[in-house]
Structure formats: structure tokens, C-alpha cells
Amino acid sequence: MAPIRKDTAHAQSLLTVSDLSVRLPSGADRPYALQGFDLRIGRDEVVCLVGGSGSGKSIAARAIMRVLPEPHVWIESGSIDYLGEALTHTSSSRMRKIRGAEIGMIFQEPMTALNPLMRVGTQIDEAMRVHGIADRRERRARTLRILDEVQLPDPSEIYHSYPHQLSGGQRQRAMIAMALVLEPKLLIADEPTTALDVTTQAQILTLIDRLRRVHRTGVLFITHDFGVVAEIADRIVVMHHGRVVESGDRDSVLGSPESDYARLLLASVPGCVPAPVRAIPQDVVLSVSGVSKSYAPRGSLFRRASTRPAVQDVHLSVRRGETLGIVGESGSGKSTTARIAVRLLEPDCGSIVLNGIELTKLHQRELGRIRPHIQIVFQDPIGSLNPRHRVGEIVAAGPMLHGVNRAEARCRAEEAFDLVGLDQRALQRYPHEFSGGQRQRIALARALVMRPKVLVADEAVSALDVTVQAQILDLLRSIRDRLDLAILFVTHDLRVAAQICDSIAVMRGGVVVESGATGKIFDHPEHQYTRQLLASIPGRSWFARGAHHSTVEEKAREAQA
Fold first, then answer.
1. Long-range contacts of 435-440 (CB under 8 A, 24+ apart)
2. Distance set, CA 143 to CA 134, 138, 176, 185, 378 (Å)
3. What's the angle, vertex CA 216, arms to CA 210 and CA 218, rounded to 5?
4. Which structural domain range is residue 447 located in?
5. Alpha carbons 206 and 213: distance in angstroms, whole number
């Protein structure tokens, strides 16, 4: 954990935001996205902006960068001062020179920030070329160096890859590389480590910390992960409904929060203590045996394609009413294994048995009759919900495709909404009218409406803030116990795995290196890689037993011990 720097309050100011108000269009849930917002960031200082979904964190970042969706959302009043320059009155041409070169930004969703038609290396090269680095060899060398610094495997191959050819964590690291390559004076990081595993997260935080120390870069770090906050923050600003409700140095906010909302957020942080052991029936619902899958990337005239194994000889089994977690770093094969289990991907070899039926031997028509029994919930609900359809139509579509009449499908959709805690009147709304947590509940309802025996949750809570995440985990536990549902839970967050999983399989490089009961994995890990993952959990010294146990005095006693 980084120590608090005592001279932070006297650091030279890079950015000062004063009494900023950002107006929302009529019909929004509130008049202002930001109201009376104040912020100061000094050189060599990390300020963490935290708050729940919809609190205004990302809007604050976009206002500073002057990339608000104007004229629908606009700055109504207030000032943004960057090194003496008033950004609220700066011309568009001047802002284009500032963005990237002086103020860099890492966006939350790399697939919307990266051009799908351009190779990764070309996009990073373009950022340097636009800002005046003319030498092609220098640009290539800097691109390969920054790709290596963000811990991407085989930078030369990543350089020639398209975004869709990378995993979610690899795309996020490529986005971070693009923001860091110009070594900006101020870095705005909007949830940059949300989709990353703990080891990669630690590497990225170290990289950002090195940039801060070497170049005296100021960092505005937007996150809902209090583990990350505990690791890197000098000061913390807590937001709720567009207003700052609390701010102060790290120890005072985490150890003795004054506002009710800050206390609520901290109380929702998952600890690292596994859930109590439950009695689980021994009958296996889903069995994956000896499964392997390899990919052969497309080659070119000068580059030979090489086959890369994604998963190798994986063995897993999930019992009725059990939650089995698959954990590991980005690219370890977690999501590939989950997709093979539901036959969204074809394995090269091995067997998948669901309720005694061998799925790998079924033709597509036969498989269609089995699919209702095994459903999947993806990480990004907005990407898996059709924006043109009302959510009631989306949820009812599954049963109707399998022969259920419209009236019955509608009744099932209403039951599913009740099950996930949503009002039935919301069936008439469109996906964009819901918050992130509500959309994840809709995605869960769409899976449950099929009345499955097995639910596969692929990073289903990783992008949610701690309060919504806690609600979804409670919901999953409740549904699992009420329906006796078997859950295959894919996550990179070991703290989340501790809260909901009965057993855990640890994957690395496509191989299961260790598996067993959750308590055994956390208390007595056998494999070195598992020990490395557990040691890399951010903020573990603060939140080992859950945030409500954390106090500054307790940390002092632990340090003395």
C-alpha cells in the first residue's frame, strides 16, 4: 500500500474545478449531472473519484476533457482551470492539442474507444503522429515499448492484431498504452482496471504510479473498487447524485467516513473471508471432461500463423445447488471454458455432459432442445440486449422460440422480473432507460425465464459498483437457493468469488492449476500461482474481513504486530 504523502495539500495545482454544474436534458431523472462540483489535482498526486452508478463520476471526467454530448448535456456554470488556462472557454482546436498530449484519458469500455477496423499498433501510432511525432521508426519503437510495459504478451503480435482478436483485459491494456504513450501531465483514468484480473491490475497500478513519480503526473482515478482506492489514493472524493458528499485523505475517508453514503459504500465492499460451508447434494448437473480448444490466428504474407491453445484438458463438475467459481488472470481461458460449456464454442476434444446427456455429440437441432436447461449471462448486458426492443419482448423471446405461446411467455417474463426484483411495469421500457445494475438484472431474468438447471455467469458483476454488486450477489444466492440452481461463476475478482462460490477452479494459461473448496483455496493454497493471485488482491490489508471492520486504529495495530 502506498504511503500518504504529507505534502499533498501543498502540491502545485495542475487542475482546479470550481462550482461546476453540468445540465441534463429535460426528462432526465434529475436536472443536473453535476452540481456545485469542486476538485483539485496537484502534480504527483492521485485523487480517486468514487461513487455509485449514476453519481456523475464519468460526466466529471468528460466535462474536464470537453467531450460532453453537447448540446444535450452541457456545462451551465463553473470553471475548469488547467495550469492557468480556462478550459471552459478554450477553442476546439486548442482542446484537440491538449487532449492526449497534455491530458490523457483511459476510457472505461475499450471496445467503444478502439476502432474495430484498425490494428492496435496503428491506433497507438496515430495518436503520436497527430501530436507531432513524425519519425516512423521512433513511433514504432515507442509503441512496442509501451505495449511491453503494460504487460501484453508478444507486443509485436499485439501490434498487428485487431481489437476483436484480444481478450477483454488485453483490450483494456491496449487502451491504457494509448493513453500513456504520450506521457501526459494529467491522466484521467475512468474505471481502467475494472475488467482486469488482480495480477494485471497490480501491474497497471504500478505502471501508473511510475508515470506519476517519474514525470510528476497528476492522476484522476475514477473507480468503484475500494481495494484499488486503498492502494493508490492520496485523496478521495466521494460523489452521490452529482454532488460531492465527502472528501479527504485516504486514511480519514476509509478509516472514519463522515457521510452516511460513504459508510454505505464501504459497508458493501466484499471481504476475503469465504462464505460459510453449505450442505450440497452430490448429484452432478454439469460435467466438463478433458476439454481442449485452440485458435489459429490468420497469418499474412510476411507473418506465419501459429496455433495457440486457449484451454487444455480442462476437467470441471458442478453439483445441483452449487456455485463453482472459475478464477484466473486475463487470457487464462475462463470465458472460453464457459462458452464451451454452453456450446457457444466447439471444443477440439473432450466431453460436456448436462443431466446425463452428452452435448458434444448432438447436432444443432438436437442441441436447440437442450439449450433452455443451460443459460449464460454475459459481462456487458447493454451489448447483449437489443436496443430496438422493449425488455419485455427481449425476455419473452426465449420461451416463444421454444414453442411457448405469447400469453404464457409474457407470464413467464413477469415472473422472472419478480424473481430478480424488478417492477413488472418496467417490461414496457427499453434497455437504455435502465441503470447498469438494472440491465444486469434484466439479463439475469432473460436467462431465468427459460427455467434452466445450470446458469453460467461470465463476469456478470465485474462492471458494477460495490452497492449494486452486493445486491446482484445477494440476488444470485437467493435464486440459487430457491431454485436449487447450479451456477458456473466466472470472475477475476477473488473477493467476489469468496462471497458466493462453494468451490473454486484456478486457471492459468488454459490449464486448471488448482481446484477445491473455497475455504481451502483461500486458507491453504497449494499452487504458487494461486498464492500470487491472493497476494495481489488490492487493498487486502484494509478489506480482508470486509470494509465494516476497517478502522485506522485497527490498521495501526496490525502494522505494529
1. 435/53, 435/54, 435/468, 436/53, 436/381, 436/382, 436/463, 436/464, 436/468, 437/53, 437/464, 437/465, 437/468, 437/471, 437/472, 439/381, 439/382, 439/385, 440/377, 440/381, 440/464, 440/468, 440/472
2. 14, 8, 12, 19, 32
3. 95
4. 284-295+304-526
5. 10
Cα-Cα-Cα-Cα dihedral sign, residues 61, 64, 68, 72: positive
* Residues 185 and 315 placed together within one structural domain of the fold: no
Question: Is 543 part of a structural domain of the chain?
Answer: no
Best CA proximity match to 419, nearest among 445, 453, 451 = 445
CATH number of domain containing 522: 3.40.50.300
544 domain-assigned: no
Is 493 within a domain?
Answer: yes
Residue 299 φ/ψ, nearest 5 degrees: -85, -170
* Signed CA dihedral, 403, 409, 413, 419: sign only: negative
3-state secondary structure of 285: strand
Residues 128-182 have pLDDT tens digits of 988 888 788 999 999 999 998 887 888 999 999 998 888 767 888 888 888 888 8
Task: Tell me the whole-structure pTM to 2 decimals.
Answer: 0.74
- Are 408 and 516 within one domain? yes
pLDDT at 214 over 90: no
- Please tell me the total count of domains within the chain: 2
pLDDT of residue 463: 67
| Residue 17 belongs to some domain of the structure | yes
Q: Are strands 511-517 and 503-508 parallel, antiparallel or unpaired?
A: antiparallel
Residue 357 has a CB neighbour count (10 Å cut-off) of: 14
Q: Are residues 35 and 162 in the same domain?
A: yes
- Tell me how long the chain is: 561
Mean pLDDT across the chain: 85
Residues 37, 108, single domain; the answer is yes
